[in-house]
Design brief:
Elements lengths: L1 H13 L5 H20 L16 E7 L4 H13 L4 E6 L4 H13 L4 E6 L6 H11 L4 E5 L3 E3 L3 H5 L8 E11 L4 H21 L10 E5 H6 L1 H5 L2 E2 L2 E2 L4 H11 L3 E13 L4 H25 L1 H4 L2 H26 L4 H13 L5 H24 L3 H7 L3 H24 L11
Parallel strand pairs: 1-2, 1-4, 2-3, 6-10
Antiparallel strand pairs: 4-7, 5-10, 6-7, 8-9
Helix pairs in contact: 2-7, 2-13, 11-17, 15-17
Length: 422
């Protein structure tokens, strides 16, 4: 943020056009202000469909999940008292079967099914198998590392009182499993998504598979489209949650957000796994942006949907343009500031050190400003206990890892082919 202000002053004094400040104003200040402004009208469903009116099945696809976390996820589903729980194991470990048998004996009044099919089918096929076996009217889908709150199912089914609603996004947050950087950065992303989902309520970009609910008849009707979806000659294997949301939106149904249906998923245990997760998400984002445009859904969608797609996915492109234009223009902001400090105070600061100082201070300002502009959940932010060194590390990773990774995802968006984080 500090560098952008310095470039803005440089432009005003030299009458030389620089794109960087405009990028910052448009894609950071304006975009985040619009998101929080539109999100302010959101209200979760207070009344709606109740458990005595509907049968609920919980479907949990699993692949190489840590057994203690998987057990916590299943127990959280049990505590919500669904009509049945179906676990589809895509790795066929004997330890999983033993765990399920133990829980079946411990909770004989709840139907807990275990499906192991002998070979790896992939997440889409695993989900579809769960839908076919399920007997509930509403299917609540959980990632195998998602732990629901005590009242999550009661909350997530409320919007289905509206017959136009076929998909509901719960409110996923994270719990730490190892890397602090992955946890803090991941939680900030989830808190930002909370604001975006409130803004897009009724026509979501994606119903995140961490905690989601669908009408079973909608899933069964679209099972073939879901399983054979392709892009050109390539079959799309991942982006299952994006695919279901796309099908619902394209068919004119409502996809809504229920912020009171809270669940917590495991943050990626290492920075490498976090980066591969973000690569997968970015690839699916670009693929479906192009698909939205080609099928015409992008132009039929509400303006807030189009705004979010453009602002989020084109921001890295705009930033790249800003960097290139600054380099080509040979902007000497740091050298001018360094000379000004030397003339006014007699203090000489090496340009490289001054650049680093501007970067560090700018990160702090940008981070604090983003929380204020987007009005992120302050209680959850406090729980992160973020220190200044955390902000610096996140800024460095964002600029030198996540940003180039996003450009790479844009160029390789077709490679949505595997469970990259397992």
């Amino acid at each position: 943020m500090l560098f952008e202000l310095l470039e803005l002053l440089y432009m005003l004094f030299t009458n030389q056009f620089l794109y960087w400040p405009f990028h910052f104003i448009l894609f950071f200040i304006v975009a985040n202000t619009i998101r929080s402004f539109l999100a302010r009208k959101y209200k979760p469903y207070k009344e709606g469909l109740s458990r005595d009116q509907v049968k609920v099945s919980v479907v949990i696809p699993e692949y190489k999940e840590e057994l203690p976390i998987l057990e916590k996820a299943i127990r959280s589903a049990i505590s919500n008292k669904p009509d049945e729980i179906i676990i589809i194991c895509d790795d066929n470990r004997k330890e999983e079967e033993q765990l399920i048998k133990k829980l079946q004996q411990e909770y004989p009044n709840i139907r807990i099914s275990f499906i192991a099919h002998g070979k790896k089918l992939g997440k889409r096929t695993a989900l579809a198998l769960g839908w076919l076996v399920a007997t509930g009217d509403i299917i609540v889908q959980l990632d195998s590392d998602t732990i629901m709150g005590p009242n999550t199912i009661n909350e997530i089914i409320k919007p289905f009182a509206d017959p136009r609603v076929v998909g509901v996004q719960g409110h996923p947050l994270l719990f730490s499993t190892g890397s602090r950087v992955s946890y803090v950065m991941g939680q900030i992303i989830e808190l930002s998504r909370d604001v975006v989902c409130k803004m897009l309520d009724g026509f979501l970009v994606v119903i995140d598979g961490k905690i989601a609910a669908y009408r079973r008849d909608f899933l069964i009707k679209n099972i073939r489209n879901f399983l054979v979806e392709s892009w050109g000659k390539s079959k799309i294997i991942l982006a299952d949650d994006r695919a279901l949301t796309y099908l619902a939106n394209k068919q004119g149904y409502k996809t809504v957000y229920q912020s009171t249906a809270i669940a917590r998923s495991a943050a990626e245990p290492t920075l490498f796994k976090f980066i591969t997760q973000q690569l997968r998400w970015a690839r699916s984002g670009y693929l479906y942006l192009i698909k939205d445009i080609k099928t015409g859904l992008f132009f039929k969608a509400p303006r807030r949907y189009r705004f979010q797609e453009i602002a989020y996915l084109l921001s890295p492109v705009s930033f790249t343009v800003a960097v290139i234009q600054t380099i080509l223009a040979n902007v000497q902001v740091v050298n001018i500031l360094d000379n000004g400090i030397l003339l006014s105070t007699g203090l000489y600061i090496a340009p490289l050190l001054l650049s680093f100082m501007i970067f560090i201070i700018g990160i702090g300002f940008t981070f604090s400003t983003s929380i204020v502009l987007m009005k992120l959940d302050r209680e959850e932010i406090k729980k992160l206990k973020i220190k200044f060194i955390d902000v610096v590390i996140l800024g460095i990773i964002g600029l030198f890892v996540i940003y180039p990774m996003t450009l790479y995802a844009m160029l390789t968006y077709r490679n949505v082919t595997d469970w990259l984080t397992r």
